[in-house]
Specification:
With about 290 residues, this protein is of the alpha+beta class. It has helices at about 5-60, 75-105, 110-120, 155-170, 215-225, 225-235, 265-270; strands at about 125-135, 175, 180, 190, 195, 200, 205-210, 240-250.
């Protein structure tokens, strides 16, 4: 074979090779075009669906937060309410002190000793003296017997009322629950797993302190049927009970409102007869 013939053969082979490559590329191009078209269509569909969902959420929300749990966090709401109640109580105490100061300047002729005694009876002045402290607490859930009602393992309002009533019966001169001064109209109310006292919720343990003759206070606690009933659960299920004799307790003054609100029957209202109401709570068995 001559050199020109060899060169022509090589050139023909190169052209054939390029033709094969071109055909292969041409055969693959339509598949890539189909894939690209499908991917583009899928992107458009996804965008349309996402836009529809966003628009629907906006219409339904009407400018509010769809995650309502963040706005109805009970713990935060309770904490905020408690702080507001404490602030208002301080305002009431400050206003009352100012009223007492101005009343003293008017020269009413009332014996200051009588005013002081009335303030002590109303629990609106601080008090210091010997007494007793009682702490009530929930039972540990880790040792709860299988199948036992969980309500039997927590402190209820009637348990606190039982202790408070026994201490009043024993001649307590002043008392606090969780550091809040107790007066004749103080209400104790269970809300969930907390106890609300004067509008402020408290979690266990619950500390009750009373000023009076320690021996008499201890005797009335031990003789109270309702306190003994609670102590049966202390022995059976591990509810908390701590009782201490105190040499010197300091009780802060009551700072809340002292206005009375009570129900009135329609008959009494129409006849003009006086009506009466009671604000004290009574204990009942668990």
């Amino acid at each position: 074979m001559t050199q020109p013939t060899l060169l022509a053969t090589l050139r023909a082979g190169a052209r054939r090779f390029r033709t094969i490559l071109w055909l292969r590329r041409g055969a693959g191009r339509p598949r890539r075009t189909v894939r690209t078209a499908l991917a583009g269509a899928a992107t458009v569909v996804i965008c349309v669906v996402a836009g529809y969902l966003i628009g629907t959420s906006s219409v339904l929300a009407r400018g509010t937060d769809l995650r309502g749990g963040r706005n109805t966090d009970l713990i935060s709401l309770v904490r905020t309410g408690s702080q507001r109640n404490a602030m208002l109580a301080r305002d009431v105490s400050s206003t009352r002190a100012e009223v007492d100061r101005l009343a003293g300047q008017t020269g009413t002729g009332i014996d200051p000793a009588l005013l002081s005694a009335a303030a002590e009876q109303a629990q609106t002045v601080a008090m210091t003296g010997p007494g007793v402290s009682v702490v009530l607490d929930d039972a540990p859930m880790s040792v709860a017997p299988a199948g036992l009602d969980p309500d039997l393992l927590v402190v209820h309002q009637q348990d606190i009322q039982a202790v408070v009533n026994a201490l009043w019966e024993g001649g307590a001169e002043g008392m606090t629950i969780q550091g809040q001064r107790v007066i004749s109209t103080t209400g104790i109310k269970c809300v969930g797993n907390t106890v609300v006292l004067q509008g402020i919720p408290y979690a266990p343990p619950y500390r009750i302190q009373a000023i009076g003759d320690p021996a008499i206070l201890e005797a009335t606690l031990s003789s109270s049927q309702y306190v003994r009933n609670y102590q049966d659960y202390v022995a059976a299920y591990g509810l908390g009970w701590l009782e201490h004799r105190e040499d010197a307790l300091h009780l802060p003054a009551y700072t809340g409102g002292i206005g009375l609100t009570y129900a009135k029957s329609l008959a009494a209202s129409s006849s003009g007869a006086p009506s009466s109401g009671a604000a004290s709570g009574s204990a009942s068995p668990r």
